[in-house]
## 1
Amino acid sequence: NAGVTQTPKFQVLKTGQSMTLQCAQDMNHNSMYWYRQDPGMGLRLIYYSASEGTTDKGEVPNGYNVSRLNKREFSLRLESAAPSQTSVYFCASSPGLVSYEQYFGPGTRLTVT
Amino acid sequence: AQSVAQPEDQVNVAEGNPLTVKCTYSVSGNPYLFWYVQYPNRGLQFLLKYITGDNLVKGSYGFEAEFNKSQTSFHLKKPSALVSDSALYFCAVRDGRGSTLGRLYFGRGTQLTVWP
């Protein structure tokens, strides 16, 4: 099993450009998450999907949109990138929402100039 | 509001000595507590969790954590540190109820360095 995979690994965007970060899991998990990690800030939840067909905002959703394409895939879209969105983005999945640990992908390092 | 505090940005310990990484939390309901480890340029890996039951939780790689409800703490411990334990450690908490049910709140992380 590959676990949680993310593409791309690295990306450089100019301010105003758009892009979609892809995430897929092969563990048949119901719940999926997108986080951003900034130095000294820990991880902050952007959006999550409790199950296929549902999505909810996390702590820092502004400037992002998500799509739960099917049970396996959960994408994050930046419609108009800003320098403040320079960060490392992690996707994660878990069997359910509450008592389960999350499994993380390797991350996407995004720089917006 | 839910929150997690890791009061130490860095912890340094000699190999073979015991280590403690501190974590305190705040939730409005019953806490669900987690510890994760992150090695350089990698995603987070799960170490252990407390949901209910015994206050001493054992996890991967010889780590354990003690849940203390009165002190709202969940400190990570290991009896004998290894150089390979050097990494960034995150504590996280989830509230077991309410409108933010699905959210996991992370601390800012503690960099553990174990020197030979």
## 2
Amino acid sequence: ELKVEQNPLFLSMQEGKNYTIYCNYSTTSDRLYWYRQDPGKSLESLFVLLSNGAVKQEGRLMASLDTKARLSTLHITAAVHDLSATYFCAVGAGTALIFGKGTTLSVSS
Amino acid sequence: GAVVSQHPSRVICKSGTSVKIECRSLDFQATTMFWYRQFPKKSLMLMATSNEGSKATYEQGVEKDKFLINHASLTLSTLTVTSAHPEDSSFYICSAGGGGASSYNEQFFGPGTRLTVL
């Protein structure tokens, strides 16, 4: 059974500093996704990572995938208040997705 | 990207009544649709997977007689919560995939339905 672990679950960030969220998964998968969720809203797709060594960047967010270590990271550069949200990684299992518990980010000045 | 809608966005009902939630893929044909449930400050839990024209596959612990799923066409799936009780109050999110909308099994998420059972 595929298990997905995210850490930390909560992250209080200071504006302008850098942070990393980690996503570990237990069995081989061919795809990994990162999503953002704002309170009361559904999921917004951020990144799709398909291969070992894949790196994608959008603004202050950069995601990478190491399939050998079964690890993905979401790196936040120079945090700003707009990044406050909950971030989920999800790993493909057949046609389904298994989600991590989510990391709630709070950015303060 | 592909667009998925859900209706209603919010529903309040009395205990014992049934509620139907619709999930539509607006610009692609979804061969597979998924239903998730999310409790406050928790992750998404997959409830069931449905393929057009066939019976849904429910995850362990999900009562299929309580959560009726129908995927009658390639653009519409419905979730009916039968005889709803307060513990069924939750945020229900559908997603859709397949049909060539993505080349890598990506799921496209609807905006969610907030169900409150009084």
